[in-house]
């Protein structure tokens, strides 16, 4: 069925001519039903039609005339997009597309826990959503992908992810969304849940395909220390931190962003070496002794005083996926 006809799956651009019933779009292009000269019938026959039928004929003919031009433009757009992507791949800024046939499944399961909507200001919501999108993108490209889940996506995060990425259309082979909290979504597998949190005294020295690893879907600029550790302890599930300090010397605290942790997991699964995984993912400037690196930050006190809830005014996160 051609775009513009009722029920047709028309491209957005193609739908426009029929979007306004008063023929305003046609007038803007210099054609209105009153001075339209049909090609598919005589002018007399056209005039005998009802107003609605005339509009329908006009829209159809306008579309027929523009279809080739429209398709050509779409083709050019796709070509340009591909060219820009290839340039980014050549500069090492984007991974080369990997055919699905070259991907294998690692058996590891990872959940992004999005239950912290009310703890973030708008900038942080944008930032965490960019991080979720990044996780999906790298999982699609990873040589050994994980079963990636997102739990308790609601409120502003849900809205933002929808408007910024149309996540509803993401490929369910690479990501699965749950309305429920992971503790309910995986109720029968509670003993397999491991919350990854920088505050845990335990370390995850290896990744077990039998476990389900949870990453806290939050950008909080350290406003909520122990947030995820406390949650895991309250729920009685296991927790662990990644062994970052054992392999690399950091200039800053070892609290990473959601996508950094996720990318470390993927890299470790691929090469089986934590040090390389950390070196590949952590930004250079965060290493101690890095040229232009930051001054070491003091490690947090074991039991820091909780800071007051943010009213959003101190929210200073960026919109980038990783900081
Ligand atoms: C920006 S951090 C959130 C910090 C937050 N205050 C908390 O209590 O988790 C985002 C998430 O990344 C994961 N994460 C960050 N650094 C980690 C580390 N060193 N080891 C394990 N997981 C880490 C945790 O799941 C954390 O919830």
From TrEMBL:
At the top of the EC hierarchy, this enzyme's class is transferase
User: What does the record give as the reaction this protein catalyses?
Assistant: guanosine(9) in tRNA + S-adenosyl-L-methionine = N(1)-methylguanosine(9) in tRNA + S-adenosyl-L-homocysteine + H(+)
Q: Where are the stretches annotated Disordered?
A: 1-36, 71-105, 285-323
Q: What CDD domains does this protein map onto? A: SPOUT_Trm10-like
Q: Which GO terms describe its cellular component?
A: nucleus
Q: Give me the stretches of Basic and acidic residues compositional bias.
A: 90-100
Q: Where in this chain does the record put each SAM-dependent MTase TRM10-type domain?
A: 96-289
Basic residues: which segments have biased composition?
74-88
Q: Where is the composition biased (Acidic residues)?
A: 296-310
Molecular function via GO: tRNA (guanosine(9)-N1)-methyltransferase activity; tRNA binding
Cite a single GO BP annotation: tRNA N1-guanine methylation
Q: What is its EC number?
A: 2.1.1.221
Keywords of this entry = Methyltransferase, S-adenosyl-L-methionine, Transferase
What domain of life is recorded for the organism?
A: Eukaryota
Q: Where is the composition biased (Low complexity)?
A: 1-11
What is the name of the protein in this document? Answer: tRNA (guanine(9)-N1)-methyltransferase
């Amino acid at each position: 069925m051609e775009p513009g006809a009722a029920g047709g799956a028309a491209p957005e651009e193609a739908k426009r001519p029929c979007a306004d019933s008063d023929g305003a779009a046609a007038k803007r292009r210099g054609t209105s039903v009153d001075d339209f000269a049909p090609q598919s019938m005589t002018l007399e026959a056209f005039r005998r039609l009802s107003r609605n039928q005339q509009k329908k004929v006009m829209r159809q003919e306008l579309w027929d005339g523009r279809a080739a031009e429209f398709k050509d433009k779409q083709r050019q757009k796709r070509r340009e997009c591909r060219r820009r992507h290839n340039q980014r791949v050549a500069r090492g800024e984007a991974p080369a597309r990997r055919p699905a046939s070259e991907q294998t499944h690692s058996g590891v399961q990872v959940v992004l826990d999005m239950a912290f909507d009310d703890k973030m200001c708008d900038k942080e919501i944008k930032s965490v959503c960019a991080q979720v999108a990044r996780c999906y993108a790298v999982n699609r490209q990873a040589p050994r992908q994980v079963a990636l889940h997102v739990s308790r996506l609601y409120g502003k995060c849900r809205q933002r992810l929808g408007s910024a990425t149309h996540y509803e259309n993401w490929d369910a082979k690479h990501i699965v969304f749950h309305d429920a909290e992971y503790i309910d979504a995986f109720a029968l597998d509670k003993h397999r849940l491991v919350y990854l949190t920088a505050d845990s005294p335990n370390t995850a020295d290896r990744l077990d395909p039998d476990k389900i690893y949870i990453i806290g879907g939050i950008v909080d600029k350290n406003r909520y220390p122990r947030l995820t550790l406390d949650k895991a302890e309250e729920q009685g599930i296991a927790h662990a931190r990644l062994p970052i300090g054992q392999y690399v010397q950091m200039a800053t605290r070892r609290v990473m962003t959601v996508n950094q942790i996720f990318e470390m997991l993927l890299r470790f699964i691929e090469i089986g070496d934590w040090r390389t995984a950390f070196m590949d993912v952590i930004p250079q400037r965060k290493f101690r002794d890095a040229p232009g690196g930051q001054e070491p930050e003091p490690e947090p006190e074991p039991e820091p005083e909780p800071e007051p809830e943010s009213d959003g005014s101190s929210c200073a996160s960026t919109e980038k996926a990783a900081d």
